[in-house]
Amino acid sequence: MQKSSYIRGKSNKIKGHTLKVYCLVEVKDKGKVIYSKQFESHSFVAQWLQLLYGAFGRNNLSILNNHFPAESIDVNWLQMNAGSGDASFGIQVGSGTTKSINDTALDSLIPNGNSVGQLAYGAMSFTSPTINTTTNQGNFSVSRSFTNNSGGSVTVSEVGIVLRSFASDTNFYYIFIIHDILSSPITLANSQVLTVTYIFSIQT
Amino acid sequence: MDSFKIFVIVKVKNPKQKTKVYRFKSRSFVGNFLYILFNSFQTNDGFSLTQAYPSSGSCQANANESAAGTYPWVTVNAGNGDASFGIQVGSGTTPPTISDITIESLIPNGNSVGQLAYGAMTTIAPVINSSNNTGYTQIQRVFINQSSTSITITEVAVVAQFGGIPCKYLILHDLLPTPVTLQPNGSVTITYQFNIAT
User: Fold this and answer.
1) Percent residues over pLDDT 70 in chain A
2) Distance from B120 to chain A by nearest Cα, in Å?
3) Alpha-carbon gap, residue B183 to B180, rounded angstroms
4) Does A27 touch chain B (CB under 8 A)?
């Protein structure tokens, strides 16, 4: 029998990264930015891998009721374009403080609304890809604003992204792909607006 | 720790030699992947992507199909002998760029000189480690040199199907840190491993 040897190859000399996701959180009070922080998202969760696996091989997925992604009459692969007031997908915010790879939702979703403990979810917005052929770097971003109309303060400690997909039984399915805990929770006073932006970046 | 990493694992078997396994970090998603992600997220009806296959003519990528049917989303499940998508190997040496739309110099499927027999693509279900919050899924393909001369591989790539029109798009392109030479009857297994750490 032949013996195997395991050689950890040196990386290409070309600098770059596979796919990085950054999160920018910004708070505005009366239109003025009073807080801004950007960090690297560290939290793709298992459903992202399952989604890739289902897509790559057209494999059926339990998270899609045993269909495979994009099997549908009207195909909308991986929607993130939630409208105003729709907290069921797109970027979400919550008040939880724990995460794990098996998460299928935020720890504790802050619901849409104007009552105590709620935030008004804006429509998702998108910034088209920018490709720099000189640096071989590209990125696009998705963002959403959350307005505190509750009359009291609301604290946000976690953010995440949920995609919506169809399958052939024409039902919607919700796929939780990213979960981040904020290093410092953000307390929004009444009328303040939190904007969360996720930036997807590649460098070839 | 990076939240998302891709490794390329290259397993080489040549007659009368030890099996060698190389692993390196893939750094090379290309622009098409970014466009596919973005337009899927935004559910755009039509957008421009330059396809790897067919090599001429135009394709209209679409992230909001309305016709009846089932459509792939970055599907790579090419069958035995189908070199038009899935993992490909080539002999190019130019560093990948973000604008690449094909592998530089594809080694075609076949059993003649300068060709390799492409096996069917395999997808491996996610392996999740809840203890350390890491996981991965893999795609894999075997290439066999059934010609009478040796052949050298210097680049690897992934081409995926997307949308209702049978067009295929380059999404990953990497140079091998060390070229791999396959002798007659030698084989190489290329694995792309997609890792996450939560």
Assistant:
1) 82
2) 11
3) 10
4) no
Question: CB-based contact (8 Å) between A100 and chain B?
Answer: yes
Give the ipTM of the model, two decimals please: 0.89
Residue A9 lies inside a defined structural domain of this protein: no
pLDDT computed for residue B3 by the predictor = 80
Quickly state the pLDDT bin for A69 (edges 50, 70, 90): low
**A13 within a domain of the structure (yes/no):** no
Backbone angles phi, psi at B156, to 5 degrees: -135, 155
**Does pLDDT of B149 surpass 60?**
yes
| Surface of B (14-33) touching A: CB under 8 A | 17-31, 33
Mean pLDDT for A151-175 is: 86
pLDDT in tens, A26-66: 999 999 999 999 999 988 999 999 888 988 887 877 776 66
Who among B22, B33, B99 is closest to A9 (CB)?
B22
Query: What pLDDT sits at residue A13?
Result: 38
- How many domains is chain A partitioned into structurally? 1
Say if B75 is an interface residue toward chain A (CB within 8 Å): yes
Residue from B5, B27, B50 whose CB has the most chain A CBs within 10 Å, to mutate: B27
Question: Residue ranges of the alpha helices (H) in B21-104?
Answer: 31-42
Residue A1 lies in a domain: no
A60 touches chain B (CB under 8 A): no
Q: Is residue A8 part of a domain?
A: no
More confident residue, B3 or B122: B122
Residue of B nearest to A14 (CA): B95
Structural domain harbouring A40: 18-203
The yes-or-no verdict on residue B198 having pLDDT over 90 is: no
Task: Please enumerate in sequence order all residues whose Cβ is within 8 A of that of B121, keeping only pairs 6 or more positions apart, or say none.
Answer: A57, B76, B77, B78, B79, B86, B87, B139, B140, B141
H or E element, residue A57: helix A46-57
Residue B6's closest CA among B20, B25, B32?
Answer: B25
Place of tokens 């998108």: A126
